[in-house]
Specification:
Radius of gyration of chain A: 22 Å
Distance between the termini of chain A: 32 Å
Structural class of chain A: mainly alpha
Shape of chain A: globular
Largest sheet of chain A: 2 strands, antiparallel
Oligomer: heterodimer
Number of strands of chain A: 2
Largest sheet of chain B: 6 strands, mixed
């Protein structure tokens, strides 16, 4: 038994045992590990996996129906990241795993099994959140890898150094997006009993509208900052399919903001959301 | 060590529920909890030492709220709750010595039984070998070994209940909170669990059992805390509490080959309010102090050569006590 106890003799000379909480990092990692296994078996993972096939389908369509239209792998990846991953997939996956990470456990009452352990609530919160963020990142990364494999089916000629840099940068952007959005939605889950609808409204109303408003207003959306990190694709050739051309044109209409600033904003939002979530969890009481 | 009752309804009803040692492990001092304008618990003080103690009350009496406050899961609106003299909400390290079995059936559905117990024990600070040893032991003890790799979503109500008990007891806690622990169990498991709770009490653990099923609690302990409409009505052993309900004297029936002689003797004795004969010719005694009556009875029998074949207390069951107190 590796219980952490400290023997201390009190002034009356009586032995007194002080019992310490489990170290935060240890507790967080154990909770994250078991939560990851639990979350990865949930039924909603299957539907999330299916939704994550969306960019793969887009790439397949371009590969099969427009093989000679001049849409390079570089351009495809930029457009997909801008519009499909950042505009849709990252927030959707983050909603699915984020709002349920802690809020659902409190609502169901299963959080009691963590609250009655010698574990601080911040470690519980962080463990659950890290598991949710990891699940979201893995799902999105799997989608990105499948896209890459479809692009490769065109021959190794599609791979240039610039493309590889863009590809790995996309991984990081997706991870950063998943971590930020999941942190935000997890915090939302500690405030609201039914956080899914507000989270959807935030994503598809607030984020969609605000990120399109010119000047500094667009900086109030996470989407803008994520899209700001994506390398600008080459200008599309004239005979591009009109939908893709329109998407890329939209993607290019951004006011320039330093990339470092966008990264900082995303990190600050993530950390602030974690802080708020931890604070909320500390105040929570068991209802069931 | 009992602090006794804290409100007028319960004046004089305290005999120190469950405080069988010198050290109270769970104490609540004038705690109250309200949700908006609804008062769930009002000005309750309790003190619990080692042994098994039943926390009794009808549905909606405030039992669950008090129970969760005592376990540190709900913050009192007023007053203080301590376990081992600590506020569990602030000093979570003390949960190493506390086990909690909730009433709610909710479990993490996508975990297996083994994973669930392993996580519970991992978070208590045990290493891998010790976790596995304890998981194996408790799975076997509750006959869940065959189901250990099944997801909890597929567990029956009784299996869930046993697993909840296992996670509460797995780390060998000194203070154990059991909220309706026998819900959904089959008769055999119920019997085993009752025996286990009694064993724990006899071993010096503090076991607080919340239940609204009186025979269930009666089978585990005679020490109770009775709560009704958010207030502690009584605290102590059932017999002691029963003795302190003056409006309802205890009725004792005595079988004797010479009932008239026995009845004649008992009239006018201390603690005897009335004596009569029932249709079966048993002597029916009403006493306002059953404990004193029972103490004196053997001496009377020996000194006066009385013959008594059977003694039956007709209304000192937990159910009767509960009825009398809640009616009043």
């Amino acid at each position: 038994m590796s219980e952490t106890t400290v023997e201390k003799v009190n002034p009356a000379g009586q032995a007194q045992t002080l019992v310490t909480p489990l170290p935060n990092l240890t507790a967080m990692l154990w909770i994250a590990w078991f939560s990851l296994r639990e979350m990865s078996r949930r039924k909603r993972i299957i539907s999330l996996g299916a939704i994550n096939l969306l960019p793969v389908i887009v790439v397949v369509i371009i590969r099969v129906w427009f093989p000679d239209q001049g849409v390079t792998a570089h351009m495809q990846l930029s457009a997909l990241t801008h519009e499909v991953f950042i505009g849709f997939l990252i927030p959707v996956v983050a909603i699915a795993v984020g709002v349920s990470a802690i809020g659902e456990q409190v609502e169901e009452g299963t959080i009691v099994y963590l609250w009655t352990r010698p574990v601080r609530r911040r470690a519980i919160y962080m463990g659950r959140l890290v598991a949710a963020q990891t699940v979201a990142t893995l799902l999105l990364s799997a989608s990105l890898i499948l896209c890459f494999l479809v692009m490769l089916s065109n021959g190794l000629g599609v791979i240039s150094w610039d493309f590889l840099v863009l590809y790995f940068r996309t991984f990081l952007i997706i991870a950063l997006g998943a971590f930020s959005y999941a942190a935000l939605f997890a915090a939302m889950g500690t405030f609201l009993k039914k956080p899914v609808v507000p989270a959807i409204l935030f994503t598809f109303v607030w984020e969609s509208l605000v990120s399109e408003v010119p000047a500094r207003v667009q900086e109030l959306s996470l989407r803008f900052h994520l899209q700001n990190l994506v390398a600008r694709p080459e200008a599309p050739v004239e005979d591009l399919p009109s939908v893709l051309g329109a998407l890329l044109a939209t993607a290019l209409q951004r006011d320039p903001v330093p990339k470092l600033q966008s990264v900082a904003v995303l990190l600050v939002v993530m950390v602030a959301a974690m802080g708020v979530g931890i604070w909320r969890l500390r105040l929570k009481e068991i209802e069931k | 060590m009992s602090t006794g009752m804290s409100n007028s309804m319960s004046d004089g009803m305290s005999s120190g529920a469950g405080v069988q040692s010198d050290q109270a492990r769970i104490t609540a001092h004038k705690v109250g909890k309200w949700f908006g304008e609804v008062i769930a618990v009002n000005n309750c003080s309790v003190s619990v030492g080692s042994g098994v103690v039943g926390l009794l009350g009808a549905n909606g009496a405030g039992k669950s709220t008090l129970f969760k406050m005592l376990a540190g899961l709900i913050e009192p609106s007023q007053g203080e709750v301590h376990v081992f003299g600590r506020r569990l909400r602030d000093e979570v390290g003390w949960f190493r010595k506390v086990g909690f079995c909730p009433e709610s059936e909710a479990l993490p559905e996508w975990m297996t039984g083994r994973e669930f117990l392993s996580l519970s024990l991992r978070l208590m600070g045990f290493d891998k070998g010790e976790v596995n040893r304890r998981v194996d032991y408790w799975l076997a003890r509750f006959e869940l070994t065959d189901a250990q790799h099944r997801r909890l979503g597929g567990y029956s109500k009784g299996m869930r209940q046993k697993l909840k008990l296992a996670q509460a007891l797995g780390h060998d806690p000194e203070v154990i909170f059991l909220d309706e622990p026998l819900n959904g169990m089959d008769p055999v498991s119920r019997k085993q669990s009752i025996d286990l709770v009694r064993e724990l009490g006899e071993a010096g653990r503090t076991v607080l059992v919340s239940s609204h099923i009186l025979p269930e609690v009666e089978s585990m302990t005679s020490q109770i805390i009775l709560i009704d409409r958010g207030r502690v009505l009584a605290e102590g052993s059932v017999t002691e509490i029963r003795d302190k309900i003056p409006e309802h004297p205890t009725t004792v029936a005595l079988a004797s080959p010479d009932p008239r002689r026995l009845a004649g003797f008992l009239i006018g004795q201390d603690n005897v309010l009335s004596v009569g004969l029932d249709p079966e010719q048993k002597v029916v005694v009403k006493t306002d102090h059953a404990i004193g009556f029972y103490r004196a009875l053997p001496g009377w029998i020996l000194a006066n050569d009385l013959q008594v074949e059977e003694i039956l207390t007709l209304d000192d069951s937990l159910e009767a006590v509960f009825d009398y107190l809640t009616q009043n």
